[in-house]
Design brief:
single chain, Rossmann fold, alpha/beta, 5-stranded parallel β-sheet, 5 helices
């Protein structure tokens, strides 16, 4: 799946690396960012097939980043999958209101994540 690009955004380096390695097992091209503002730039320049986005990040949080991505004509078509430790229903609702197609909670089984990714990059 080298022709499929996924942008992964998380401010925790070990989580970012774990997700990156998991996706590379399926030969996805992985682009990473650790803050929301960087995610906006990378989404626009690389136009990934999917964005995996954390919620709690310094500066621009995931909800805010998702809303901006969905308001941008160049990036609004890109599916956003939240992967976060915020597990309250109100947070999940905010995720879907921000434009997410999925709201997944950490910790996550790597195979389950790959199955979800496959649903959106086929």
């Amino acid at each position: 799946m080298k022709d499929k690009k996924i942008l992964v955004v998380d401010d925790e380096p070990h989580i970012l690396k774990l997700i990156e390695l998991t996706l590379k097992l399926k030969e996805f091209e992985v682009i990473t960012a650790s803050v929301g503002h960087e995610a906006l730039t990378l989404a626009e320049t690389h136009l990934p097939n999917l964005i995996i986005l954390d919620v709690m990040m310094p500066g621009l949080n995931g909800f805010e980043a998702a809303k901006i991505i969905k308001e941008n004509e160049l990036t609004k078509h890109i599916p956003i999958l939240f992967l976060t430790s915020k597990s309250q229903f109100s947070d999940e609702l905010k995720g879907y209101e921000a434009g997410a197609v999925e709201y997944l909670k950490k910790p996550i089984d790597p195979q389950f994540l790959l199955n979800k990714v496959d649903q959106y990059v086929q």
